[in-house]
Amino acid sequence: MATTSTASADKSRVLVVDDEPQITRVLRTVLTSQGYQVRTAAEGESALSSFNDWRPELVITDLYMPHMDGVELCRRIRAVSNVPIIVLSVKGEERSKVEALDSGADDYVTKPFGTDELMARVRAALRRAGGEGDIGSFEAGDFRVDLEGRRVHVGGNEVRLTPKEFDLFVYMARHPNRVLTHRALLEAVWGEASQEQPEYLRVFMGQLRKKLEPDPSTPRYLVTEPWVGYRFNPNG
After folding, report:
1. How many CB atoms lie within 10 A of CB 136?
2. Which of 84, 176, 185, 191 could form a disulfide with 125 if both were Cys (CB 3.0 to 4.6 A apart)?
3. pLDDT tens for residues 207-221?
4. Using CA atoms, how far apart are residues 227 and 233, in angstroms rounded to an integer?
């Protein structure tokens, strides 16, 4: 495993939670080789204790563990902190992934996963955690968003959006590369009463793709996460 990238390490603290020792060993090796500080826990209760004592800047947790599962761990952490959380799942756990995301997880990686993919998700989560002020405009990859003028530019060209299209796009642009559940998007843009009307999201996502995607039938920016929601890829 190459170690030359440690020169760019930022020493961020990462808490890894998984009851499979081989997984925690691999993650500790990969993360420390990139310069991150790592602690591990085998179940939710000890993870919470480490979280409270150590205050990590990122949590990576499995979904199924003894005593306290990953969904409950996400819920408990999110009640006291906005630290980014990445959950590890296996194929076929769509329902649990949705529960974890609804409980506060920011992203998920499906086992078996490649270390390059995981590290890309880790870097993205830590960048987002740096925060961004509520400014008049901001850049998101190929897009420039003017909040005051309620305008969106792609490659220097203005794209006219309706008020709800704009609100939906801004919410996604403020959470780049993050899985956003149907429920989270509906509540953020249309409020809690929209939970029984998911057609809102399908219709407006289709409209946004027609206006923002080079080929709406093969979206690059507004990508569907099957059974879960959508992900905004700012650079396509």
Report:
1. 10
2. 84
3. 999 999 999 999 999
4. 18
DSSP collapsed to 3 states, the chain:
CCCHHHHHCCCCEEEEECCCHHHHHHHHHHHHHCCCEEEEECCHHHHHHHHHHHCCCEEEEECCCCCCCHHHHHHHHHCCCCCCEEEEEECCCHHHHHHHHHCCCCEEEEECCCHHHHHHHHHHHHHHHCCCCCCCEEEECCEEEECCCCEEEECCEEECCCHHHHHHHHHHHCCCCCEEEHHHHHHHHHCHHHHHCCHHHHHHHHHHHHHHCCCCCCCCCEEEECCCEEEECCCC
> Rounded distance, CA 218 to CA 68, Å?
40
The arithmetic mean of pLDDT across residues 129-152, rounded, is 79
Q: Give the domain-ending residue among 109, 129, 149.
A: 129
Three-state SS for 8-26 is HCCCCEEEEECCCHHHHHH
Residues 19 and 45 in one domain: yes
Q: List pLDDT tens digits, range 26-62.
A: 999 999 999 999 999 999 999 999 999 999 999 999 9
Residue 177: burial class (beta carbons within 10 Å; 0-12, 13-18, 19+): buried
Over pLDDT 90: what percentage of the chain?
A: 52
The residue written with tokens 């990576």 in the block is: 60
Q: Which of 96, 112, 129 is the last residue of a domain?
A: 129
State residue 168's pLDDT score: 93
> Has residue 4 got a pLDDT over 80?
no
